[in-house]
Each structure stands twice: as structure tokens, then as C-alpha cells.
Amino acid sequence: MNQTETRSAARPSITFEQVRQVFTASDGSEVVALDDTSFAIDRHEFIAVIGPSGCGKSTLLRILAGLIRPTSGQVSIYGKKLDGPRDEVGIVFQKPTLLPWLTIRDNLTFPMKHKYGRVTAQERERGEELLELVGLKEFGGKRPDELSGGMQQRAGIARALLHDPEILLMDEPFSALDALTRDELSLELLNIWTQRPKTVLFITHSIPEALLLADRILVMSARPGRITEIIDVELPRPRSLDTLTEPRFNELANHIRRKVFSRHGL
Predict the structure, then answer these.
(1) Is 33 helix (H, G, I), strand (E, B) or coil?
(2) Exposed/middle/buried for 86, CB within 10 Å: 0-12, 13-18, 19+?
(3) Which residues have C-beta within 8 Å of that of residue 130, sequence separation ≥ 6?
(4) 3-state SS assignment for residue 170
(5) What CA–CA distances, in Å, run from 218 to 40, 46, 49, 232?
(6) Which of 44, 103, 129, 209 has its CA 20 to 30 A from that of 251?
(7) How many whole angstroms separate alpha carbon 45 and alpha carbon 15?
(8) What structural domains and CATH numbers belong to the chain?
(9) How far apart are the two ends of the chain, measured CA to CA in Å?
(10) What's the CA gap between 68 and 90, in Å, rounded?
(11) How far apart are CA 252 and CA 78, in angstroms?
(12) How far is it, in rounded angstroms, from Cα 107 to Cα 109?
């Protein structure tokens, strides 16, 4: 797929227009988390966001999730101003936050039961399909403490996909995992995204992870967070671990490192 052609022809799924987010600290002072943040994401585009700690990456995601309202500026989904959580948005958090007393199967369907008071046969069937998709078909009857961290995060991804959201927000979902498991889940996520295309906003501190997954990377500055560059990831799909050894991969990685660490004079 030619991502440049896709972006030029498609209507954006998500737009941020001059978004500014200010919080009040405990001493009453103002903390500017985001400032003059503008970008657009097209349908089924995979966008990674990277930047130094405290630059506002998670704040950006929480705004898009409808969990907080920006101090100024506007966020739109499919041309409609965002004023709260939307059904077409699914979220995968840094920790899977599974309910320990429920089986993995019941954890997947719990949000539907909590919201609507029941789980339909179609939703249960979809849950089984998703368990198979994330490699947990044989573990649906287990409880979270019987699964590894990587398996729990797979369950968290499946839960976010149960209601078939058009937009998937992922807040450093693999950061607490060991390097091997992280690579494995990155490849699994690529497979899921290929089979069931979604518009994805993926927060990460890992430059290799961002390059392996994304169509474009939003590079953010230190607080107050601003988008300093939007990088097209000019690496062919489908991608694999071999992608990590391509010369262009290393060129892009070095460019992003210089951009992120420029304030240190490195």
C-alpha cells in the first residue's frame, strides 16, 4: 500500500487542531503539558508517538480517548468534535488491568456486560475468535494470575478489540515486558492490524518498536509537548524482524535519536 497516496485520497479519521492542555499543580502553578499540537491521522493508518518522558504523550492519548478535554483547540473524529468517550475508540493501557477473579474469557466480555447488562451470543463468539487471534484459545478458562505478563497483555488487546472499534489507542502496551516478549508481541500486533485494519495511535519510548510498527511517527519535544517532526517510515510492508537490519531502518533510527535528544546537545 502506498501510504502517501492513501493519505492524499482519504478523509482524516482524527484531527488535532492547535490543541493546548494546561494542568494546575498542587502549588497552584500552571503546567503546560501540550502546546499548539496539530496533526491528522487517516483511516487505517498506524501512527506511533515518541518523545522524552513527561512530554505529554499519554496526555495526548487521554484527550483522544475523551477522558479529558483540552484547555483550548479542537479534536475531531470523522469530522465531529470530540466531547467525550466514543464507542468507535478502543484503548489498550500499559498494564492490562484484568479483573483477577474472572477468567480471561469473562474479562474479554466484561465491558459489554458492565455497559449493557448482558453479553450476546455474537459477542461471546467474537471473544472466542479474538482469543484464537491473539494465541490464547487454550487459556480462555484461566485466570490472569495463571498467565504470563505477555499473555495478559494479549488478553488486554483482545478485550479492546471485542466491540470492533474503528480506532485503537495503545499507551505503551509492551513497556513492562522483557525484550523478547516485546518483539514477539510487536509482530503479533502487526499481524492483527493486517488482518483487522484499524486506525492506531501507539505511544512508545522505543524507537525500534515505533519504526517496526508505524506508517508515520510523531516526534514530540520535551514539555511543553509539541510535535517537532512527522516522519514517514519508508520501510516496505509486510515487516518482520529482518526489517530491523535494513540500512534505511538504522538511518531513520539515528535521525529520530538526534531529534529526541537534541536538547542535550547530543
Answers:
(1) strand
(2) middle
(3) 108, 158, 161, 162
(4) strand
(5) 11, 11, 5, 9
(6) 44
(7) 13
(8) 11-82+168-173+188-260 (3.40.50.300), 89-164 (no CATH)
(9) 36
(10) 16
(11) 31
(12) 6
Return the residue matching grid coordinates 497483555: 153
Residue 40: what are its φ and ψ, rounded to 5°? -135, 145
Sheet holding 30-42, edge to edge: 30-42, 12-24, 72-77, 80-81
Here the cell at position 189 is 500486533
Report how far residue 168's alpha carbon sits from residue 165's, in angstroms, rounded to the nearest whole number: 7
pLDDT 10s digit of each residue in the chain, 266 long? 444 444 544 578 999 999 999 999 999 999 999 999 999 999 999 999 999 988 999 999 999 999 999 999 999 999 999 999 998 999 998 888 899 999 999 999 998 888 888 899 999 999 999 999 999 999 999 999 999 999 999 999 999 999 899 999 999 999 888 888 889 999 999 999 999 999 999 999 999 999 999 999 999 999 899 999 999 999 999 999 999 999 999 999 999 999 988 765 44
Residue 134: all three cell numbers together = 491473539
CB 181 within 8 A of CB 28: no
